[in-house]
Every structure is written in C-alpha cells, then in structure tokens.
Amino acid sequence: MNLPINFPMFMSMSLNSWSDALSQWVPFGVPLGLVVVAAIPLVFIALYALTYGVYGERKISAFMQDRLGPMEVGFWGLLQTLADILKLLQKEDIVNRDADKFLFVVGPGILFVGAFLAFAVLPFGPEFIGADLNVGLFYAIGIVALEVVGILAAGWGSNNKWALYGAIRSVAQIVSYEIPAAIAILCGAMMAGTLSMQQFSVLQQGEYGFLHFFLFQNPIAWLPFIIYFIASLAETNRAPFDIPEAESELVAGYFTEYSGMKFAVIFLAEYGSMFMVSAIISIVFLGGWNSPLPNIGTFTLNDWTTGPVWGVFWIASKGFFFIFIQMWLRWTLPRLRVDQLMYLCWKVLTPFAFLAFVLTAVWEIYMK
Amino acid sequence: MSEYFRNIASGVTTILTGMGITLRHFFNAVRRKGDAGIDENAYFGQVDGLVTLQYPREAVPTPQNARYRLYNDIDDCIGCGQCVRACPIECITMETIKVTKDDLEVCGKTSGGQQKRFWVPVFDIDIAKCMTCGICVSVCPTECLVHTPVSDFSEFDRDNMLYHFGNLTELEAEAKRKKLAEEKKVAAAQKADGSTEK
Question: Which residues pair with A299 in a beta bridge?
C-alpha cells in the first residue's frame, strides 16, 4: 500500500494533491489509483445525468408548462429515471439490416468517449483534476468537437434519411459554432495568459470573491461570455439550436434508429457535454472552483467557503446553474431554421466575437 | 445596418420576455390553478399554477344532469319495453313474462304506485355499444332507467361491459313461465267450457 498516510483531506490547498496522491496509489503493482481518477468523473456524469439531467429536466420542463411531470414511480416520481434505465437495459439491441454495422455501433461510443474525455482536464476542485495539462482549455474545446465524428458515424451508419439529415445538420452546426466559441474562449485565455484549467481558477482567486472573476475584471468580458454561452448551446445541440434532432421534422435526428443502451449512451453523452461546456464557461469566466462570496470585514465569507470540498461544491453548482439556464432556454424558445442558425453564427456571433477579441486585447495591453 | 442592430435588439428583448414568462410559470408551479368554471368571474384570473389533475386520485366532479353510465332500477321497471324500441343502436335486450293473477301481489308495485304486470328476467344493456344519447331515459314512463354520474367504467374483459339488470334467476323465470302457461291453459279450458255451456 503506497497510499500516503498524510492524505490531505480538508486541510491544505496545494494544487492537485488529491489526484496526484491517487495516481501514485499502485497496490500490488496495479495502478488502481488511475482507475479511480478516471472513475470519479464517470460516476459523476452517470449520477448527474440520472438525477439532475433526466429527472430534473423533466420536472423543470413540466413546471414551466404548468404540468407536474413524473409523479407515479416513487415519491414525486423520483424513481422514474431508474425505471427508464431498467427498461432501456432490457430492450433488444437492434441494428437494422441495411445499416453500416461498424459505424452504427461505433458512433455512440465515439460520442460518449468524446464527451467523457473532456472531463480529464476538468478541475473538480483545487485538489482534484484528471490531467493538469498546460493546454487544458485547448484540449477541452477540441475534444468536445470530437462529437462531430460520432454524430456523423451514427447518422451515416443508420442508413436512414432522417438520421443522415440530422447528422449533416449537426456537423454543419457544430463546425460553424466552433469558431465564435473558440474566439470567445480565446478572450478568456488572453485575460488569463494561460490555457491550464487549474491556473484559470487560481488566477481568479481573491478575497473579494466574485469581483476577481474574469467576467468582472474586464468591461468587455460579458460579450465573449454571452457569445460562448450561445455557441455552447449550439455545440451541444440544445434548443433553440436542436435542429439536428428536431423531433417535429426529423423524428429524432441522428439517433432515430437507436434504441436500448446505445440510445442511453447517446443521451448520457449529451448530458455529459452539457455539463462540460457549463464547466468550461464557469472556469473561464466565473472562477471555476472559487467561492463567489467576498470577505466583508470580520465576516470572512470567502475564507470560510474556500477549500477542497467547497471547490467541488462551487464548480458543480456553477455548472448546474448554467445547465438550468440551458433547460430554461430550451423550454422557452422555438427552434431556429437552418438559415437562421447560419445567419446567427456567421453574421452575428462571429463578427461580435472578433470585436470582443480585439477589445479584450486592447484592454489587456493598454488599460490594465 | 441599422436594421441589423434592430434585429439583434429585438431578439434579445423578446428572448428575455419569453424567459421571464417561463420563469414565472416555473415558480408558480408550487400552487394549483384555481378550479373556477367558465361561468364564474374568477375564471380568467387563474392564469398561473399547475393544471394537471392526477386522475385516479382526483377528478373533476361530473355534472348532476350529465349523461354517463346507464342504470336501471329494476324494482321500478314495468317491462314496457319502450326503451328497447327507442334505442337507436339496439343495445338494450329485454325479455318479459306476464305476471299471473295470483302473483300480482308478489310482483308488487313501483315506487310510483303503479302495479307491475311483467316479470323482467332479462334486462341487458351492452354499455360498450351505448352512445349515451339518453333517448331511452326520456321515454321511460317510470323513470327507472337513469344516467348515473359514473364516468369511468372501463373493463379488461369485453363481456363485463354487458350489464345485467334482470331480477329473476333462470330457474325462477322458468317457473314463472310454466305458471303462466298453466294459467293460460286453465283460462283456455274455462273459455272452451263457457262456450260449450252457452
């Protein structure tokens, strides 16, 4: 057992100490610690998708439409998602006859792996990060875009007109929205001067809480913030940019032909990338795992709410807050037409992203 | 160019307005929408709140005079067969046996005081066919055939939709039939005797 005795639980704030300690835990020559490091985000995605993702979204949508939502399975329908999962597990794994069997099977896998790989660079707190890459942010936005491959494989492999339409729309949309999203994120990177996700959070630390967040450090930061949020909606295929799965025209878009566990995996990937983009936006602009509460005189709220466990709490609640806004928008806005989608990307978001980029650069060089 | 910015501005304001509306509904989901009917003044005031009714546990009360499931109070039925004739889709089946003179007392009277002259061994309503037009109810002279406010009477077996209201068992009905036949025979014999005497 190489597990260090002085495992820093709630005491220190040395960066990445939990994940470093875990990764060095190699009992009997088996790198079990690395497995645990990888398992933590996986369990997190599964739990959050099961509870907040599916159940929460159904409840939120129901309340916004004056309905009750799931009420029958368990108290307030709390066991509804478990029942759904049990149903999906029992379903026959259908691969339709004329499908491209390899692509059909591999599509959901790529989707999920793409969504899950991004969690490698997500700091779950000051003490825990899968891999503290110096190009973490670049890696994250790059790996989220890997989903395109999975979507295209799923849509093409299904050999179904709706699936193919959905896949092509999705690819066009994600590739287009990468540009404003990346430029907006670049504004954040300029403010930080680094691409490491941990360094982003460290730079936004301070006794005034939220005032140290990049969103409030710069008079133009709200513009890339909003641009990235809109573009992230499009990248995760959420409404109002859900034209790839547009139920009313394309049945279910690129996953029309999927059922059972493959369908569940696609769903999990969608919720995984929803949390990932929410986490990215909260790390770049809203301080990641830093507490937003300021120190006021003797009430050192910031000091009280800072620590490894608090960090997990803050980053999870910031992510969930943005997911709530994503759901809120989904149940408010109708779907955009394809041409409106492209108009918004190329004629509105991209020019404004460039403008924000230049203004941020000017601010960083001359004003700061 | 100014139209471009106007579009953006109107896009932002309309999105915010819409989000305000959905958020208001979201927070109002803690209470129920009132149950004022359309004839009440409060009807148009109840915009927010949950509208879902969890049906098997709660239901909108059915109106007093509404037409739902048919019920025949067989003790009041005189077996006149008007409902059978009135029914447009022939969902009522009725069989009657005339009451013999000595049984009139046993058969009794309706609650309205009318002497019943027929046994009704079979009074079947195929409620699956019934379209609740209510013509049978309106022609019923003793008002024994009525609509009840029961609106949910679905069944797993179609045969259960055939409602039996007859008040005699098969054996009883057979006995009554025999009795009637004997009485007729006696009457016919008396008639024959009378005609020969004259």
Answer: A296
Q: Touching check for B53 and chain A: CB below 8 Å?
A: no
Are A348 and B8 spatial neighbours (Cβ–Cβ below 8 Å)? yes
Question: If you measure CA to CA, which chain B residue comes closest to A330?
Answer: B19
Q: Per the domain annotation, does A129 fall within a domain? A: yes
User: How much is the ipTM here?
Assistant: 0.74
DSSP H stretches of helix in chain B: 2-27, 82-86, 104-107, 135-139, 170-197
Helix (H) / strand (E) element for A159: namely none
Domain that includes residue A362, residue range:
95-367
Give the one of A66, A71, A329 whose C-beta lies nearest to B49's C-beta. A66
Answer yes or no: is A73 within a domain: no
Neighbour count for residue A55 (Cβ, 10 Å)? 21
Residue A330 included in any domain? yes
Angle at the Cα of A42 from the Cα atoms of A37 and A48, rounded to 5 degrees: 130
Q: Report CB contact under 8 Å: A67, B25.
A: no
Q: How many CA atoms lie within 13 A of A77 on its CB side?
A: 17
In chain A, the percentage of residues whose pLDDT exceeds 70 is 95
Q: Which of A66, A328, A347 sits opposite B50 (nearest CB)?
A: A66
Q: Which residues are within 8 A (CB) of B61 and not within 5 positions of it... i.e. 6 or more apart?
A: B149
- Determine contact: B50 vs chain A, CB below 8 A: yes
Phi first, then psi, for residue B31 (nearest 5°) are: -125, 165
Q: Is residue A45 part of a domain?
A: no
The total number of structural domains in chain A stands at 1
pLDDT of residue B196: 61
Residue range A80-89, pLDDT digits in tens: 888 888 888 8
